[in-house]
Structures are given as structure tokens and as C-alpha cells.
Amino acid sequence: MGSASSAYRIIYLDVDGRIQKVVFSHCCSPCDIKELFCTAVGLPRSTTFSLLDASGAMVSIDPTMPSNSERSPYKVVPLSGGQLPDKEELFQNVLTQVAEQFSSSVFLNPSFSLSRAFKINELKAEVTNRLAMLEKRVELEGIKVVEIEKCRSDIKKLREEMTSRNSSSCLDDKKLTPHRDVPSYPKYHLSKETIDTLRQPIFDVWQWEPNELCIHDNYRNNPFHNFRHCFCVAQMMYSMIYLCNLQEKFTQIDILILMTAAVCHDLDHPGYNNTYQINARTELAVRYNDISPLENHHCAVAFQIFSQPDCNIFSNFDAEAFKQIRQGTITLILATDMARHGEILDCFKQKLETFDFTNEEHVTCLKMVLIKCCDISNEVRPMEVAEPWVDCLLEEYFMQSDREKAEGLPVAPFMDRDKVTKPTAQIGFIKFVLIPMFETVMKLFPQIEEAMLQPLRESRDRYEELKQIDEAMNEIILPPLPYRYRKRRVRISAWEAKRNE
Q1: 449 phi, psi to nearest 5 deg
Q2: Does 216 count as an annotated binding residue?
Q3: Are strands 49-52 and 74-78 parallel, antiparallel or unpaired?
Q4: Which region holds residue 17: left if phi is over 0, alpha if psi is between -120 and 50, else beta?
Q5: How far apart are CA 205 and CA 199, in angstroms?
Q6: Which DSSP string corresponds to 398-466?
Q7: Is 341 known to be catalytic?
Q8: What is the pLDDT of residues 118-136, one digit of tens each?
Q9: What pLDDT digit, counting tens, does each position of 258-282 carry?
Q10: Rounded to 5 degrees, what angle do the CA atoms 85, 88, 92 make?
Q11: Which residues contact 92 (CB under 8 A, 6 or more apart)?
């Protein structure tokens, strides 16, 4: 028998009931000890086996392994196929062995035992990590195999379908009908009264419920820039086409471009304008180099939708016509960036004196002004339709200004809830943006004066009166009321004015 301090160590092994004795030195490595065991029990050196003590716990093969006696030899258990025991069983055996060695040796040599226990804990953690990595790798490889098989299956089906189509086209000498990818939708039969109302700026969009369309699903639920705003712009465009008799002056493709751009002009609007995108250095601003980031994004989303077979409303157009539609739609959507307002209006004014409907450049400039008119045309509508839109817009402005304050970004005065009022927000916009633009368009189409310009002038006058009332009340009520109360007072004043009519 050897001891922990002797130069040699004697181990007894139980191999199928035969007791074998193995003597080894402390200088032996675990690999040397394993070879000695294999020689003693008559096993090949490449054999994988495990040693179990009398209690069934696994015993590690190293020079410090405890000695035993002939009466309680270690049992040799060869492992078939070189497989390891179950992971849970392996951990249990290792933990049992650690506990036994720790409890039996700590009193003899505490520092040695603690060091050994910590090393075994480190080994356990390393084994656990390696097993986890292997399991993850097997899982990923399994997923790859599934995906590859699915891809192969899809390719096989596609190849078979193409072969089938080619075979049928070879067998059939008849001219094939071009395939249309647009699904068939139920046709809605609108009454004459509805059609006539849609042609007028007085149409009440708040009484209309949106349908579930792909375009609808790609508008966000913002207070202002939502699908209902998109519908407002499209309906006003339809109204201007009818009032200005554009169907007789423009080509059908021009009309299609106008309506498509109106429907798509604010797709996926995030509710924060270009100024915020640029100041906050958002992904959109970086992607489009600070040049109309939102409008460029609206265009990109629109044509991503049209690229889907079920949404491709242009599938029957040839390549040249589609190119014209795409370029025209992009031009109009980009024109809705208010940073370009002065540039676009000045360009249109220069062409008014000699405007020519056969001149492509003149027509493009007019279309850009038309979509701008429709985009900001809420005040053309009756007061009870237009005023809720002001509340929606201010709510969206205040959301942005609150975020800009929180992020330390510049805040526009007309968006600051602590500075803006509804009359001050609208008067300047109507006087210096809306009326001059619609007056310019009226020079080409005098018929819009009564339907569009007159409501704008009335709206300007109404807000100027409300501003005077606010100023008079602010002289009495100090400090100024918060916006939520001002909004309520404006609604009451507007209601009283309408009632007095």
C-alpha cells in the first residue's frame, strides 16, 4: 500500500472479477497511468474506460488519485464505441469524487485540498461551456440542413413548373394571353351623389372609413401623417383634376402619376419631420445625405410595395411607360418637401405667361404645384372638417418638440407647446403659403377661386378674429392658458360663430 507521501502508489483493479495490481510513480502522467492500467488488465492502449470506486463514483486518472486495497479495488468499466456517459451522470460522478477527496484531504493539507477543489470546479465549468458550444453547433447545423433541404425542394418545384410551362407552350400553337399579377378585387359601384361629392373640396373625410389595403398598412398611426391624411390628399387631387378639367389637358399617364403620388406621398412617415431627421442624424438622414430624407423614403417604400406581384398595378405597362410613371411619381413625391416650396413656386410662376400643355417641362412643373396644393389643402375645406386637422398637426408637432427638448436638439417656435397657439400657427401659414400658391394656380385655372381661394380667405379672417379674442383674454387671464384649454376655447368660439350665422 502506498500513501500520499510515498514515492510509489499501488492501485488494485477489478476487471470482470479478476484483481490486478498496478504500481506507478508520482512522476507518471495521467496518460502513462492509463497505459499501465491497459497493460495490467490486457486491454488495447486505445481503449476508453472509466474507473469506479466501491460506491460507484468515477475516479479520475492522475498521480494524486487515492490508493485503495485488494478488498475494495477500483472497478474497470470499458466504454463501448468510445462514447462518454450521460452528461448528468458524468457531472454527478465528478461532484461525488470532488466531495470525497475534499472531505478526506482537507484536514491533512488544507491548502492543497482547496487548490485541487478549485481546479476541479474550473474543469467542470470548462466542460460545461464546451458541451454548450457543441450543442449550439449541432442545433445550428441542423437548422442549416433543414433550410438547405427546403431550398432544394423549392428549386425542384420551380424547375418542374418551368418545364411544365415550356412543354405546354411548345405543344400549344395558340397565342398565349399575357399573365396579369394583379389580383381581382370586387368592384365598388358608387352612387352619382357620392361621385359628385368626391369631386368637391367640401368632402368630409372624417365620415369615411379606410379599407384594408397594402398602402393603408404601410402608413403609421401618427396623429397627422396617417392614411386618412393620404386619403385627403388623394381626394383633393381628384377634385382639382375635375375642377380644372385636367383629364382633357393631361395624358392618362399624367393623371395616373398625379393620383399615385397623392396616395403614396407620405408612406411610412415616422411622425418627425426632416429637420428632426437631420439634426438627430437618424438612419434616414444618413442614408439620403440630408437631402429630403423623408420624401426619398416615401418613394422607396412605394416602389417596394409595387414590386410585389399582388400589388403591381403597373404590370400591364411596357418598360418605357413604367419608367415614365416611376420617374413622374418620384418627382412629385419629392416636391412635397416644404424646404423646396419657394423654388418650385417660382419655377411655375416663370412659366405662367407662356404656359404650354404640350411642353413636358411645363406640365411637370404644374403637376408639382398641384400635389403641393393638395398636400396642404386642409384649410380649403369647411371649418368643421379642417379644424380637427389643425389639432392633429399640432399634437404631432408637440410630440416632436418634446422629443427635441429631451434630446437637446433645436426646437422650432411653431412646434413648441409653450409658445404656439392655434391662431398664430394658422394665420401665417394661410397668408404667406396657402393663399399665394392658390392665387398663382388660379391664374391658369380661374374656376378654383370660388371653390378653394374663397374658403382660404374666410379661414384666414376667422383665425385673425380668434387671435384678437385670445389677446384680449390674455390681458385679463395671466399667465396664458395651457394649450389644452386654448384648444377648448377656440372650439367654443368657432361653434358660437357658426351658430350666429
Answers
A1: -60, -50
A2: no
A3: antiparallel
A4: left
A5: 13
A6: HHHHHHHHHHT----GGG-TTT--HHHHHHHHIIIIIHHHHHHHHTT-TTHIIIIIHHHHHHHHHHHHH
A7: no
A8: 556 666 666 677 666 666 6
A9: 999 999 999 999 999 999 999 999 9
A10: 95
A11: none
Is the link from the previous residue into 482 a cis peptide, with omega within 30 of 0?
Answer: no
For residues 33 and 45, is the Cβ–Cβ distance under 8 A? no
Are the C-beta atoms of residues 491 and 387 closer than 8 Å to each other? yes
402 in a known ligand binding site: no
Q: Report the amino acid identity of residue 370.
A: L
Say how far apart CA 158 and CA 147 lie, in whole Å.
16
Whether 434 contacts 236, CB under 8 Å: no
Q: Kindly name the residue from 225, 269, 297, 298 that is annotated as catalytic.
A: 225
Q: Is the dihedral of CA 343, 345, 348, 353 positive or negative?
A: negative
Q: How far is CA 218 from the centre of its chain?
A: 11
Q: Does the pLDDT of residue 91 top 70, yes or no?
A: no
Note the pTM of the prediction, 2 decimals.
0.57
Query: H or E stretch including 23?
Result: strand 18-25
Please give the helix or strand (H or E) that residue 187 lies within, else none. none
Contact 79, 114 (CB under 8 A): no
- Length of the chain equals 501
Q: What are phi and psi of 25, to 5 degrees?
A: -95, 160
Quick one: CA dihedral 314, 316, 320, 321, positive or negative? negative
From 347, 336, 202, select the one nearest 258 (Cα to Cα): 336
Q: Provide the sign of the torsion angle of the four alpha carbons 399, 401, 404, 406, taken in this order.
A: negative
- 426 marked ligand binding residue: yes
Measure the CA–CA gap between 301 and 265, rounded to whole angstroms: 10
The reply, when asked if residue 129 is annotated as ligand binding, is no
pLDDT (tens digit, 9 = 90+) per residue, 410-460? 999 999 999 998 999 999 999 999 999 999 999 999 999 999 999 999 999
Instruction: Name the grid cell of 202.
Output: 367640401
